[in-house]
Amino acid sequence: MPEPPPSEDFSLPWRRRAIQTQPETLWFAIAWSLEEPERLAEVAQLENGGVLGRGEPDSAEGSGMRLQFSALRASLEAGSPWLTSSRVSRRQLELSEVTGETARVTSVGRCPMAVNGTPVTSAVVKPGDVINLRNALVLLVVRRRAERALQNASAAFAFGGPDAHGIVGESPALWGLRESLAFAGRSREHVLITGESGSGKELAACAIHALSARAGRGMVSRNAATLPEALVDAELFGNAKNYPNPGMPERPGLVAEAHESTLFLDEIGELSATAQAHLLRVADREGEYQRLGDAQRRRADFRMIAATNRDPASLKHDFLARFPVRVHVPGLNERLEDIPLLVRATLRRLCDSSQGLLERFFERRGSKLAEARIEPEVIELLLRHHYRTHLRELEHLLWTALATSQDDFIAATPEFVRAAAPGSKAPAPEPDRAAIEQALSATKGNVTKAARLLGLRNRYVLYRIMRKLQIEAEG
Fold first, then answer.
1. pLDDT digits (tens, 9 = 90+) for 280-304
2. What are the structural domains, with CATH classification, of the chain?
């Protein structure tokens, strides 16, 4: 007879962790609020369905049925008050059919609802979908765990604001990055940072250096793509006086400049295989190298941080092996819930350079600068946009909105819509019967105007949907 399998030993720390780890569920994240703009990035869990609305729950709702938003930072949860926006009904949305991937959202309040830009009264939503409660609240559907223990990262900064390294975000992906940066900072090994173009790899490198024992000396930085192939060795290792040509001054090289500090080489994937091979010896613990034209062997106590937007496998295998610590910087498509926070931080930075922009688009409460006046459709389009150059692309889109807005608020101008809309990744759901009937009633049966109100391309699309739902046009 075979022996029975051994029973689980839950006293083992890894088994306890497996039991304690909570599954990912659906959440709402606040992306914009007219009356409570300070609550950006607060989240509420949809695990048991319930009701979204203003104020404390009614006794008839039952315990735990009303969604409450919280400033949830990994394992730190800051209690927040109930929603207070007067534009949101006490029973605005009903949540049902909640699974780990989708939930049905039904509008029962006075505030019209649109999902991914299309007016609906009920829709099944999934992570990445955007719910716009007109002129009141914009919500992003996300998938995350209820809590996540912080091992290395510090949380000693205001919720939603930049940390000590200027990094903005409260998403699990961003907190995972902070933990990786803290670990890499305390390590003495060389580090390879990966991530798409514009995702913030240089900012990550600066954070690693600042968190390291070498932070007392300035980091030496160079874009490897700017190193001419014929001069790579001279740029990296320096050259002796009068070499290779008479009158050539002595140069220490980047490695010597980084002695007892950090050398950051961005776009390391642009270095040729030959140049990568020349870095192998100096990248070992001894840090041995020679200047061109100099027989003396030198040593540099430095740490190398390299960054690339390419597949790490494209590097020489023995060069890649010199980077035992790897850090991945997530792009905006991996942390959509951080976009409203990045919008706030970026707008303040862009407008700081112009007093006119500050006075025009930002409110003041006494001497304190308040939130920017921004149309909710701007946030909605930025959430639905698919980013290729990430932070740089977000900044470009915001500049487009600033430059083309005619009033005292940042508007979804035609120029901004053209720039942002092509990358929209979330398909708009088809409007349902109730939404179509409401639109026809509001436009007195004008199908062209109703189609425009519903966000459809033209009236023929609306006619097709009406035929399917057996809705007759008036007149």
1. 999 987 899 999 888 889 999 999 9
2. 13-144 (2.60.200.20), 172-332 (3.40.50.300), 335-423 (1.10.8), 433-469 (no CATH)
